[in-house]
Amino acid sequence: MVMRRKSVQYGDLDLDRIIRTLTQVKPWQKSLDISESDIRMVCVLARQIFLHQPMLLELEPPLKIAGDIHGQFSDLLRLFNLSGFPPESNYLFLGDYVDRGPKSIETILLLLCYKIKYPNNFFLLRGNHEVANLNRIYGFYDECKRRYSVKLWKTFQDVFNCMPVAALIDNKIFCCHGGLSPNLRSLDQLKRVARPCDIQETGLLCDILWSDPDNSVVGWAPNERGVSYVFGADVLTQFLQKMDLDIVVRGHQVVEDGYEFFGRRGLVTIFSAPNYCGEFDNAGAVMNVDENLLCSFQILKPMEHPLQKTTAIGGLVNLVNIKLASENGTKTPKRYRRGML
């Protein structure tokens, strides 16, 4: 439940100094004036909070939903400039904080600090890159080793293994990183998952973090990523009806406009890393959910010169009433290749 109350106690750790240091980091800055011992303490405190909150978060609006960040720390700061720094706004992030981008440590560290400072207003789900066997390969391990130590990388894995994997907003909006699973028959299954936990190569948790919607599929089919499945609009419709839900909100895929609907607006993909990897001219997006579950989107456009000082560019667009919306007349943006893990 999103509510206001005092944050947890964090002893001698100067959390406000760490947050202040991080929010003043420049795009070209390579060093970070935060000790490894302080980062470890942040990890310990965040892990405790994750374990005290459920695997399936039950949240109340209003809040903002953000998708993949992937170490694009400058864009994360732009996102907060656009949508409000905590505690001005309540947030739910859908996972994939690390790998690929240049500042994964800054990204995950700031998010964990906000989780500690505002535990009941700031929420982080686990993505498929918050798994050791993936972030060992795609950049986070090398960044931790180069800038701090392998031991710190292992400490972050202890945090990732305790993160929740899904959220339910007002019993109507189901949020996760990837998508649905043929093994998901009841949301209570997620509540019963014990933590800390690794993500196996198959099964319920793997699918929640890895699966994708696909317009060309009826039912379930193997995923071109080589992990999990893709599912058709028919699977989505059955899931929404069975669970009495309005919409599924997920990340995991680059989409041109930062958000993209699927299955007659029964699902929306949110991606919050503009100009992903410097290869895609995509926008980023944040989804706003108000008290009446009316949903709208704020757009974060790519920076023309990422290494120069810039201000956030974006605006409120495409106000959508999820319960009443019709897909007639809406465009279908192109989707980028699925092969990006």
For this entry, give a set of tags.
341 residues; Purple Acid Phosphatase, chain A, domain 2; six-stranded mixed beta sheet; 10 helices; 15 strands; 28% helix; disordered N terminus; disordered C terminus
Give an account of the 3D structure.
- With 341 residues, the chain is of the alpha/beta class.
- Helices cover 28% and strands 18% of the residues.
- It has a single domain, classed as 4-Layer Sandwich (Purple Acid Phosphatase, chain A, domain 2).
- The protein contains 10 helices and 15 strands.
- It has a 6-stranded mixed beta sheet with strand order 1-5-6-10-12-11. A 6-stranded mixed beta sheet has the order 4-3-2-13-14-15, with helices on one face.
- Helix 1 packs across helix 4 (104-117), helix 2 (36-52) packs parallel to helix 7 (150-160) and helix 6 crosses helix 7 (150-160).
- The two termini are 32 Å apart.
Overall number of domains: 1
CATH topology: the name is Purple Acid Phosphatase, chain A, domain 2
At the fourth CATH level, what is the homologous superfamily? Metallo-dependent phosphatases
Reported for the largest beta sheet, the result is: 6 strands, mixed
In short:
One of its GO terms (molecular function) is metal ion binding. Belongs to the PPP phosphatase family. With 341 residues, the chain is α/β, with parallel strands linked by helices.
What's the arrangement of secondary structure elements?
Layout: H1 15-23, H2 36-52, E1 56-59, E2 63-66, H3 73-83, E3 91-93, H4 104-117, E4 122-124, H5 132-135, H6 140-147, H7 150-160, E5 166-169, E6 173-176, H8 188-191, H9 204-210, E7 212-213, E8 220-222, E9 229-231, H10 233-243, E10 247-250, E11 259-262, E12 267-270, E13 284-289, E14 295-300, E15 314-320
Parallel strand pairs: 1-5, 2-3, 3-4, 6-10, 7-9, 10-12
Antiparallel strand pairs: 2-13, 5-6, 8-9, 11-12, 13-14, 14-15
Helix pairs in contact: 1-4, 2-4, 2-7, 6-7
